[in-house]
Amino acid sequence: MKLRHTIVLAALLTAVTPIAAMAAWWESVQPHARIWLRQVDPKSDTRKSDAQRPWVSAEVTDVDVLDGSVTFRHGPIKRVGMPAMTMTLPFRDLVHLGMLKPGDRIDIQAADVGGAVKIVNLKMRH
């Protein structure tokens, strides 16, 4: 019986560890994402709807379906004096992840959703 409990406990810890590590990683990047959001959308806190948020043009460099995020790079955003950069953000609605692949050109809107900066809208560019 003890061996069985030990095996079950080990299985649970193995399953929880990647989730805990992912959560810790997201928490570590959120301060940078919040700074990015404040620069891209200074009125982010006062917006009444996602449709009012500015669009950012970007290119997908990686899609991680398991953690619900996309890595993208965007060029300089001259209207706010932001340099080109690469960053990773989670999606609020995971349905979009299945249609993305590296190299896709997209426009995104981001917002603080429950304390985490997430992509809230996406348009494909052709």
From TrEMBL:
Signal peptide annotation: 1-23
Presence of keyword Signal: yes
The protein's name in its UniProt record: Copper-binding protein
Keyword Iron-sulfur assigned: no
Superkingdom of the source species: Bacteria
UniProt source species: Enterovirga aerilata
Cited InterPro entries: CusF_Ec (IPR021647), CusF_sf (IPR042230)
Keywords from the named record: Signal
